[in-house]
Amino acid sequence: MRVIHSHRHAGHDGGFELHRGELVPCFETPTRVVHILRALERAEMPVEAPREFSVDALLRVHDAGFVEFLRNAHAQWRAHGRSGSMLPSGFPARGLRRDRIPAGINGMMGHYAFDAGTPIVEGTWDAALSSAQVALTAAALVAEGERSTYALCRPPGHHAGRSTYGGYCFLNNAALAAQELRDRGFGRVAVLDVDYHHGNGTQEIFYTRGDVLFVSIHGTPDTEYPYFLGYADERGIDAGEGFTRNFPLPAGSGWEGYRAALAEALEEIAQFGADALVVSLGVDTFEGDPISSFKLAGRHFPLIGAMIAALLLPTVLVQEGGYAAEEIGENVLGILEAF
Ligand SMILES: [Zn+2]
């Protein structure tokens, strides 16, 4: 399996985030990648740099004004004499205007963000762009005949919507990979999201489309982040009706419940008649994860990999979450080796 990764990820190091009411050091750190790279090295899996894709490639799934905001946000912050990381503190909730984007950086940040856990620093844009290029390259390789590829993306992407960022995500790497596969000849593409958290951004991007199936297994939004999307009754609308499928599980779920949901999710993908698959690969379902509450053990990840691989589809695996840094490498490798 070919592995794509960019060292430019390291430019994004947010420092602090607002997490459940407290300002704490970021869980999403460059160290996560260091542990994954070590595991890949032990497995003798070489890492390749991504190809260059222009900013225009992002506009297939993202809003132009949003991309422009991400690109310039920190420069605007600095122009106001600020430095360090940017976190929003006001949002256009019910009763407030979303149709008008404020000109000032604080209002603009609140307009585009949906949480205060996703800091932007000077290197964030370049890291997010390189992460998107990693996913696009991995998808291009599959379109050119590779059976499966692994996009070691950082920052992750599945919470980023058409014009929103949050949940440590800025650009939606998995959605970009799925769109690349569509544009390069695969008629029906499925996205399987196995991260602990619902892939709200990916769901939003494809919600009205019947050519991309979105299936997600995650902690129930009744108690788990991102709280406001990911329920079982969300099934898609218009041409997308019936092409979104959510499997929310209670916090504390273990392997038996997870395995049953995964089997049903895979059946859904087989029924859809997918020609290619994108996996939003989060390993924060691990029992030792500091911000999640499933009880999967290390030995379960090779089983998950084997079940997904049995679909026998051309597959792009895109790295999402996983915050138990010490174990993230082995858990990811457990899935990759099954392919
Ligand atoms: Zn997650």
Descriptive account of the structure:
The chain has an eight-stranded parallel sheet with strand order 4-1-5-10-9-6-7-8, with helices on both faces. The chain contains nine helices and ten strands. It starts with a strand and ends with a helix. β9 (276-281), α8 (300-309) and β10 (315-319) form a beta-alpha-beta unit. Helix content is 34%, strand content 14%. The protein is globular. The longest helix has 20 residues, at 124-143. The model has no long low-confidence stretch (mean pLDDT 97). The protein has 339 residues and is an alpha/beta fold. The chain has helices at 31-42, 64-79, 105-112, 124-143, 173-183, 200-206, 255-272, 300-309, 325-338; strands spanning 2-5, 16-19, 22-25, 47-48, 148-152, 189-193, 212-219, 244-249, 276-281, 315-319. Bound molecules: zinc ion. Zinc ion (ZN) is lined by residues 195-197, 282, 284, 320-321.
**Number of separate helices:** 9
- Tell me the strand percentage band: 5-15%
Query: Runs with pLDDT <50, length 5+?
Result: none
Terminal CA distance reads 8 Å
Going by helix content, strand content and strand pairing, the class is alpha/beta
The tally of beta strands, per DSSP, is 10
Largest sheet: 8 strands, parallel
Overall outline? globular
User: Which distinct ligands sit in these coordinates?
Assistant: zinc ion
Question: In order across it, which strands form the biggest sheet?
Answer: 4-1-5-10-9-6-7-8
